[in-house]
Recover the amino acids of this structure.
């Protein structure tokens, strides 16, 4: 459609669901009498029109989910029993296909919660669904709340800032009742709910309107209330999966690998594509993330990519979107795109780095080292005080981003193990893992590991991280407290990444017991951290060498052949 023909916008267009509840959407569509494919997104955050997509020749439908803003019914979040997202999504897709200006083919798109809504409707296979463009959503709750540990900074921002204003308005609570009022409160009083104890007793100025949701999340966030990997065999639609290495929900990659292996049909399995840039959650492909500029090649306009994807599947355009290598990923440090036939990449090799020290690995000035062979038996000690946690360095919204970690270098409650300056680059692509042997004086505690890239000038940025809550070390359902002083083995998987540690840089592993408010504080009591106000200082020991040798395993990928590099240049252009 020529752009000068213009766009028609309709507000609060009604769609009746199978149970009679009316949901409302804003629709943007090209002017004129023609029919076009429809694109649907369903959101709990307040609908908005997609004028640029309409200008590309689509009927764009942005719908308020059940019980949100203009839509009727009662809102039930995706982690609570009784949500309607699959049925409502199915009904909405089929309604969209029958609109008088729709040609009958429908695509769905969404990032974050809207991605969840898309997966739900895809699992029940509405006949008119032809393609999906999704990202920013992991397959399991325990990959969202990593290791079953509450991401308190992000959860509070999400619940109190993004969701609760409309809930408060519907239930008769006072301000904040609008998005702007919620934004203002979040800026003014962000610290108060974060540090409040006990968390279950947060006052109504924050939790009023969503207390039931808040309590349910506190009680169940460590449970796999859904595991979408089990439902990939029910999905039969091409999907472009998109995420970023600094997206806390980068395990979106598991949707890709799950669909490649278990999608309903061979055609669907072959029609999965994955794009992973250096970005954070919910961003539109910028080159600047946190304090790092990843170069012009990192910049990607999601909407342009989305249009090309839907043009291929809904309009039949042969526009190069079905790349021969299904995986396109950005290597940070190298700052270039690479390709792979699968995820995890087939040619990764494991490289082990062993923790060692002379008993004083505290701070970067200590004697903690990463070596390629195990050394003498020893240990390092630090005190974890929940009243004085290590503070997270990320976006105020609670989203991950690379910031200079050297500002934490004076803290004695961080153990630092690092290599000498590298003579040759090390390209890490995949999920690092740490095998940690540790003891604690507490009945329950946390251990957090962070993979760091140390630049020659002193800048230190976080590449990946992982966490274990001791009570969940074996199971999320059968919790086991610690015997104080006993050495336990912890297997800690970090989030996937792709980073070139360049010559002259150092590979570093930090070990700590707090990363607040990225994760909530473990009170170290072994009790209910959300229902009590008691804190206990824990004395932590990390062991290395001998039978308690702790180590880090990195997935390392070597140089690509010239054919792959030529494919990479082609695919980089296709990504814009």
């Amino acid at each position: 459609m020529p752009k000068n023909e213009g766009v028609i916008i309709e507000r609060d267009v009604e769609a009746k669901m199978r149970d009679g509840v009316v949901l409302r959407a804003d629709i943007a569509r090209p002017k004129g009498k023609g029919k076009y494919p429809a694109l649907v997104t369903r959101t709990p955050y307040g609908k908005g029109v997609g004028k640029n997509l309409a200008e590309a020749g689509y009927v764009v439908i942005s719908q308020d989910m059940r019980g949100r803003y203009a839509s009727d019914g009662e809102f039930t979040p995706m982690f609570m029993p009784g949500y309607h997202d699959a049925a409502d999504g199915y009904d909405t897709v089929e309604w969209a296909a029958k609109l008088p200006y729709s040609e009958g083919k429908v695509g769905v798109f969404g990032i974050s919660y809207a991605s969840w809504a898309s997966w739900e409707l895809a699992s029940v296979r509405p006949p008119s669904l032809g393609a999906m463009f999704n990202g920013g959503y992991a397959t399991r709750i325990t990959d969202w709340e990593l290791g079953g540990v509450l991401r308190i900074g992000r959860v509070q921002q999400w619940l109190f800032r993004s969701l609760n204003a409309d809930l408060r308005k519907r239930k008769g609570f006072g301000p904040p009742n609008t998005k702007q009022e919620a934004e203002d409160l979040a800026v003014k009083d962000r610290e108060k709910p974060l540090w409040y104890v006990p968390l279950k007793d947060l006052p109504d100025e924050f939790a009023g309107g969503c207390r039931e949701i808040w309590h349910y999340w506190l009680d169940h966030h460590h449970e796999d209330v859904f595991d979408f990997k089990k439902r990939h065999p029910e999905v039969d639609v091409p999907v472009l999966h998109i995420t970023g290495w600094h997206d806390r929900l980068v395990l979106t990659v598991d949707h890709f690998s799950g669909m490649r292996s278990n999608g309903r049909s061979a055609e669907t399995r072959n029609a999965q594509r994955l794009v992973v840039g250096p970005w954070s959650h919910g961003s539109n492909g910028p080159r600047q993330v946190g304090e790092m500029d990843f170069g012009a090649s990192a910049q990607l306009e999601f909407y342009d990519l989305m249009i090309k994807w839907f043009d291929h599947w809904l309009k039949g355009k042969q526009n190069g979107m079905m790349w021969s290598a299904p995986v396109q990923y950005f290597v940070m440090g190298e700052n270039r795109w690479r390709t792979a036939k699968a995820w995890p990449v087939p040619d990764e090799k494991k490289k082990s780095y062993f923790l060692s020290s002379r008993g004083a690995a505290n701070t970067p000035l200590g004697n903690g080292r990463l070596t390629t062979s195990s050394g003498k038996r020893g240990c390092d000690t630090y005190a974890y005080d929940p009243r004085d946690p290590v503070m997270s360095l990320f976006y105020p919204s609670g989203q991950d981003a690379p910031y200079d970690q050297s500002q934490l270098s004076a803290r004695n409650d961080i153990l630092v193990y690092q290599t000498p300056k590298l003579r040759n680059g090390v390209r890490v692509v995949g999920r690092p893992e740490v095998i940690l042997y540790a003891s604690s004086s507490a009945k329950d505690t946390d251990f957090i590991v962070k993979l760091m890239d140390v630049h020659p000038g002193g800048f230190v940025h976080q590449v990946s991280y992982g966490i274990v809550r001791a009570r969940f070390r074996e199971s999320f359902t059968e919790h086991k407290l610690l015997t104080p002083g006993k050495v336990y083995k912890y297997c800690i998987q970090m989030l996937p990444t792709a980073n070139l540690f360049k010559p002259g840089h150092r590979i570093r592993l930090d070990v700590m017991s707090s990363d607040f408010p990225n994760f909530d504080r473990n009170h170290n009591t072994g009790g209910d951290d959300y229902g009590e106000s008691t804190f206990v200082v824990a004395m932590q020991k990390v062991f290395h060498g001998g039978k308690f040798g702790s180590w880090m395993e990195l997935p390392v990928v070597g140089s690509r052949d010239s054919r792959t590099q030529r494919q990479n240049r082609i695919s980089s252009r296709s990504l814009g």
